[in-house]
Amino acid sequence: MPNVLIAYFTWSGNTRRIAELIHSKVDGTLVEIQPEVSYPRSYNVVVNQAKREISMSHKPPLKTKIEHIESYDIIFVGSPNWWGTIAPPVATFLLGYDLRGKTIVPFSTHGGGGQGRISVDIAKLCPGSTILKGFSIYGGELGRAEAMISAWLREIGILM
Description:
This protein is of the alpha/beta class. It has helices at 14-26, 43-55, 88-95, 118-125, 145-155, and strands at 4-8, 29-32, 74-80, 103-110, 130-131, 135-138. The chain has a single domain (4-155), classed as Rossmann fold. Strands 1, 2, 3, 4, 5 and 6 form a 6-stranded parallel sheet that branches. Helix 1 packs across helix 5 (145-155).
């Protein structure tokens, strides 16, 4: 059985909910990616901050540290879709480790932007990794998420 890590960043809690559902299906280790400085709770303020950070390729320092990441075979990486890509803390996380030879499985939540460039951008940050087809869900569909996640995990060969 492969050793699985599920690492995610959440702002509103939606991405955490998806991470927890994935964890309930595949087990493994569940870790929240936390920046040293939390993002503002105001939606408009965080939207503007995220836009600035992404345009500047800002990589915020993290509180989160993963010990022995080399022991994981499959790493699920979750993020809200911020301006068509991953949130800056997720980029910091991916750049902080040598993930060559790992299988990376992106998942995201969004408010209407779909998956955007998330899988493409993760692939750029993870050279030498195998990137599986990502999962993306609209916040309003969280009630249907469990069945959708099961179908996706079967499609990508994680669940039988």
